[in-house]
Amino acid sequence: MSVYDEIEIEDMEWVEEDRTFYYPCPCGDRFEILLEDLLMGEEIARCPSCSLTIRIIYDEEFLAQYANLN
C-alpha cells in the first residue's frame, strides 16, 4: 500500500473521548486511527474525506500509557 507520509505518533493529537489519534490531512480533514486498531497492530491511518493514508510510527511502550486509561 502506498502511503502519503510516515508520522510519529507523538506528533498526533490524542482525543481521549474518542480513544482516537488524529493528524491534519492536506485536504483539510484529519487522518484518524483508533487506539484499539493500533493495539491490534494496525499502523495505517486513513482520512475519511479523501484517499490519502499515513503510516504511524510508534512503539508498544508508548501505546501502553493510553491503553491503561479508562
Automatic annotation (TrEMBL):
- The superkingdom listed in its UniProt entry is Eukaryota
Offer an example of a GO molecular function term for this protein.
Answer: metal ion binding
Record's keyword annotation contains Metal-binding: yes
Q: Which residues form the DPH-type MB domain?
A: 3-59
Which Pfam families does its entry note? Zn_ribbon_CSL
Q: In which pathway does it act?
A: Protein modification; peptidyl-diphthamide biosynthesis
Iron found in the keyword field? yes
Q: What is the catalytic activity of this protein?
A: 2 [3Fe-4S](0)-[protein] + 2 Fe(2+)-[Dph3] + NADH = 2 [4Fe-4S](1+)-[protein] + 2 [Dph3] + NAD(+) + H(+); [3Fe-4S](1+)-[protein] + Fe(2+)-[Dph3] = [3Fe-4S](0)-[protein] + Fe(3+)-[Dph3]
* Annotated keywords: Iron, Metal-binding
Listed under GO biological process in this entry are:
protein histidyl modification to diphthamide
Coiled coil stretches, renumbered? none
Instruction: Enumerate the InterPro entries for this protein.
Output: DPH3/4-like, DPH_MB_dom, DPH_MB_sf
The entry's family comment says: Belongs to the DPH3 family.
Q: What is this protein called?
A: Diphthamide biosynthesis protein 3
What organism, scientifically named, is this protein from? Answer: Stentor coeruleus
